[in-house]
Amino acid sequence: MKNFDVVVIGGGAGGLFAASVANVLGAKTVIVEKKRLGGDCTWFGCMPSKAILKCASVANLLKRASDFGLSFGASLSVDASGVLKHVRDVVGEIATHHPNEVFQKRGIEIIIGAPKFINKNTIEVNDQKIISKKFIICTGSHPVILPIEGLNNINYLTNENIFDLDVLPKSLIVLGGGPIGVELSQALARLGVKVSIVEMMDRILFREDKEVAEVLESALEDDGIDIFSGKKAIKFAENSGLVVVTLEDKNGKKEEISAENVLIAVGRAPNLDGLCLEAAGIKYSKKGVDVDAFLRTTNKGVFACGDISGPYQFSHVAAYQASICVRNALFIRLAHQKVNYTNVAWATFTEPELAHLGLTEEEAKAKYSNVKVYRNEYGASDRAVTDLEKDGLVKIITDKKGYILGAHIVGAHSSELMQGLLIAKSSRLPLSKIAPMLFIYPTLSELIKKTSAKTLVEKMGNPVIKYVINALKKI
C-alpha cells in the first residue's frame, strides 16, 4: 500500500499539468495512466490532425503555384502515399517530449495500469492499493459511436485509428460536421480523397457564429467536399466493396451515398469505464463527472478536469482546469478559486482557420440590448493581398459601452489574431482602446486595429464629440 498527497488519474494534457504543478508545490504526487502518457491530444487528436493538415496545406499551395506566377514546367501531381507515415513520425517525436523518465526525475511517480476506486480515498491499480488525501481525475474521452443499423458490421474509422492506415481511401463519408470532422475532411480532400460530410444539424460547425461558418463552408465546397446538412445517417451496408449510407432528412426523405469507408466524428464521450466511481461516492452521468464551481466532485476529496468534466473539450481548457484543481486540492478554503469560462477561445485549424471567442452575434443579441457588431474583410489588409489570403472576415461584437462580448475570425492565421482580442476581453479593455495602438505593418494583425478603429469613426458622429473637436481645433 502506498500513500500520496495527490493522485492524478490520467496522463493527458490536464493530468500532466496537474501533476507538475502539485509537485512544484511540494505535494507527494503520482500519475496513474491506463496506457501511456500524452493523452488523446498527442496520440489521436491535436498533433496528428495538425500534422496531416500541414501536409494538405503544402499540397494545396503547390497546386496554387500559378496563382503566384510560378511554374514547375511539367504537370504537378501529389503522391500522398507517405503522408500517414510522416504523421506517425511527427507524433512519435512529440511523444518524446513527455516520457515517464522526465516526470520521475522531478519526483513524480508514474504507474501504468487501469485504476479503480475501492473507497472514498483509495484506488487499486495492478493489484496495489493507493491511498491519497486528494485525487484529480482527468481521464479524457473517446469517440461516440451511435447505435445506427449496420454500423457495427463495417470497419469504420475514427480519429483513433485513421492515422494507423498505410493507404488513404479513395473516397470517404465523414459522419459529423464538427471541428474534428471538418478538419480531417479538408485535409483528406486536399490529399486526393473524395469526401462527403453528413451533418444532422442545418449547417456544419453549428456552435460557431453563422456568418463566419458560412465562409468556411464555402471554402470546403471549393475543395470539392460534398456537404449533406440537415440529414442523418439511419443505415449502413456494404455493397461491392463500398459502404452505402442511407440518409434521411427532416421530412423523412431518404437518399443513399457511398464511399470506400466511413469516418465517425459525431462527438466524444467521457472515459468512465472501470473507474468504479460509485465506490468513492462520486456522482456522474453519461455526460461526465458532476463537479461544482471549484471542480470538486460529490466526494470533496476528489476533483475532475478536462473532457471528463466538460463543458469544453479542449487541451488548453483542461490545463486551465487542472491548475484550479491543484489549487483547490492543496490550499485552504480561503484561497480556493472558482472556474470561469467567460473568456474561453478556440479554433478550427482548417484553411481558412476559424477562431471563436465569447458569444456569437445571435447569443449576444439574445442576452444583451444595444449590441454592436463591427466587421472587416480580410481584403482590407495589405498583407492579406500580398499573400493571396483575401478570403476572410473579422467580426467583433460589443455591448453598448464598447466592451467585447464576442469575436469571430475566419481567415489565415485567425487563431493567432484572436490572442490579442482574448487579452483585451479578459482585461476588460474597450474595443476603442485598441485602435490607437501601434501595430506592425504589414501584418494581418492590422485587421484588428482597422476593425477597432470603426468604433472611433462611430464616435465622430456624436454631436458632443464633434463640438469638443471643433472647440479644440487651431485651424
Can you tell me about this structure?
This protein has 3 domains: 2-38 and 98-142 and 269-335, 3-Layer(bba) Sandwich (FAD/NAD(P)-binding domain); 151-267, FAD/NAD(P)-binding domain; 345-464, FAD/NAD-linked reductase, C-terminal dimerisation domain (Enolase-like, domain 1, 2-Layer Sandwich). The protein has 13 helices and 23 strands. It has 475 residues and is an alpha/beta fold. It is globular.
Which ranges are low-confidence, i.e. pLDDT below 50, for 5 or more consecutive residues? Answer: none
Corresponding CATH architecture of the largest domain: 3-Layer(bba) Sandwich
What's the β-strand tally? 23
Might you state the CATH topology name of the largest domain? Answer: FAD/NAD(P)-binding domain
CATH superfamily of the largest domain: FAD/NAD(P)-binding domain
Kindly report the average pLDDT value: 94
β-strand amount: 25-35%
Oligomer: single chain
The span between the termini is 85 Å
The shape is globular
Entry summary:
By secondary structure, the chain is an alpha/beta fold.
Keywords:
FAD/NAD(P)-binding domain; five-stranded antiparallel sheet; 475 residues; single chain; Enolase-like, domain 1; alpha/beta; seven-stranded mixed sheet
